[in-house]
# Entry
Amino acid sequence: MPKFYLTTPVYYINDVPHIGHAYTTVVADVLARWHRLKGDDVFFLTGLDENSVKTVQAAKERGFDDVQKYSDRMAENWKEVWRALNISNDGFIRTSEERHKKTVKDFFMKVFENGDIYKGEYEGLYCEGCEAFYTEGDLVDGKCPLHKTVPKRVKEENYFFKLSKYQDKILKYIESPDIIQPSSRRSEVISFIKAGLRDTSVSRPNPGWGIPVPVDRDSVIWVWFDALLNYVSGADEKYWPVDLQIVGKDILRFHCIIWPGMLLSAGYKLPRKFLVHGFLTVNGQKISKSLGNAIDPVYIAKKYSSDALRYFLIRDIPLGEDGDFSEEVLVTRLNDELADILGNLVHRVLSFIYTKFNGEVPKPSELNKQDREVISMIESAPSSIGKHIEELNLGAGLREIIKLAKFGNKYFNDSEPWRTIKDDPERCATTLYVCSQLMRSLAIMLVPYLPSTSEKIWKSLGLPGSVHNHKWESAGELALKHGHKIVKPEPLFEKMSNKKLMVKSEEKSQKKQAPSTIKGEDFEKLDIKIGKILEVEHIPKSKKLLKISVDLGGERRTIVAGLAEHYRAEELVGKHVAVVLNMEPVQLMGVKSEGMLLAAEDGEVVSILTIEKSVKPGAKVR
Ligand code: MSP
# Structure
């Protein structure tokens, strides 16, 4: 059984995951599931990068004195997100774990003892967002090109890694064909190396968090040197080297220059391939907290299903290039492709067999040209679709599966089984026999992309066990025997009717009449202040309500708000929100609510009002 080890980056825990992080992980998950179906011994690793100064700052902002407690809380949060998106990772590594710290210390000592780490003074520009040093030449208008912030000038005694010593070897490695996909990224790395590599600082002053340099407790190991080693600490050594590392374009140089340099120094085999993806924007805008467009993938998955989200991400974002997330396009794909093509095909075929053939796969008779055409498509699909996936063209593979389902609908229509059942029952039986084989084949080939839909189709076909345990190649077989009993089919996808959404918001606007004009003194009656959210708890037995404890500068209040379907508890902690304080207290599900949190509502989307600049809790809103 060949092994296949693939990784995502370890994610920073200064915030909750957004749709961009979900993208990296979904791409990795599709590949992991596909390799399992191919029969590989897969190890799929993901995890968290916890030892950054950003973690310390985030913990402080959210009112945690204990950084480890904050990290533990965030780790649960990230794990929950991956569960909601059906991510099938085999390993989960947190860089604050002991097993990781040990690996990092041992590795550091190995490189140190090789003479590849030395002490020196460094003066440079440090971007805390990137956790990296920049030269003036790297900056755009004096700012970090990624975070658009002015980096801090720092002068430090640091430990340096002799990256320059490995320049030629790294270049040779990166020049080997297919090492980085897409190849444009490979060219980018090659020109960077050719411009000359400088030794890189691998320590920072100890902020009381992170992994201390084994030979100097006043310093911690630079978070990138530390984080990259998750790929060693997170998996059994039998999986080494990594077969595929999936990374975003922003972290290309760390992975394709520093990382191989570190491994060469310590005498490890190098990763076999890097898949570099682009960046997601939301409705054309960069994802950013301040723009408030950091879409929560769990919210989308709950609203439309995790398969619909996965479908959109793979179908519409060209892997390797930048792409745009649009909820509207996602709904269109859900309605027009998942429901109208795939769902419709499965439902009409299985319902027909269920009602007209007593739920049994019918016995075929002589095959005509159209039957043979569908059968030959079933037989060749695993190899042609598998080739796309093998070449990391995930979108092309998915589009071909949908094309096959579309063809299935055409075949069903053209064969007119509703007519032949009366005129030519043998013909009708043959059509449905061929269609049922197509259902089975689609179920298997959809496993990597739509893991829960594929299982639903499998179960509706009345097949035993889980579709996830089948072989990819078996999707090309006509394995359903006539007489096999299927199960009463259920619709696969619920269509999202735009009309329904529009009616809903119209109803709402009619309910609340437009306000007549008010005087300034009327507005003055409202006591609105800025509060900082300290704690958030779910109210037992309520799907909608959260109990929120808010610091209003010298006063703490409990507010009950109907936000549970729109925010996760952890996400709210630390946020500065606008609160109406002189509302009459009300008792909701046994909890007294002493105020109202302001939020904007747009159909299904609810967004709390936060502030643009930092002001103290208790600041008056006028
Ligand atoms: N902690 C480092 C990685 C260390 S790996 C040894 C880090 N973390 S991150 O949380 O900022 O980003 C992790 C991954 O998410 C990266 O691959 C990054 O490209 C990806 N994305 C973050 N924002 C993204 C988008 N807007 N779009 C697509 N992917 C994005 O970097």
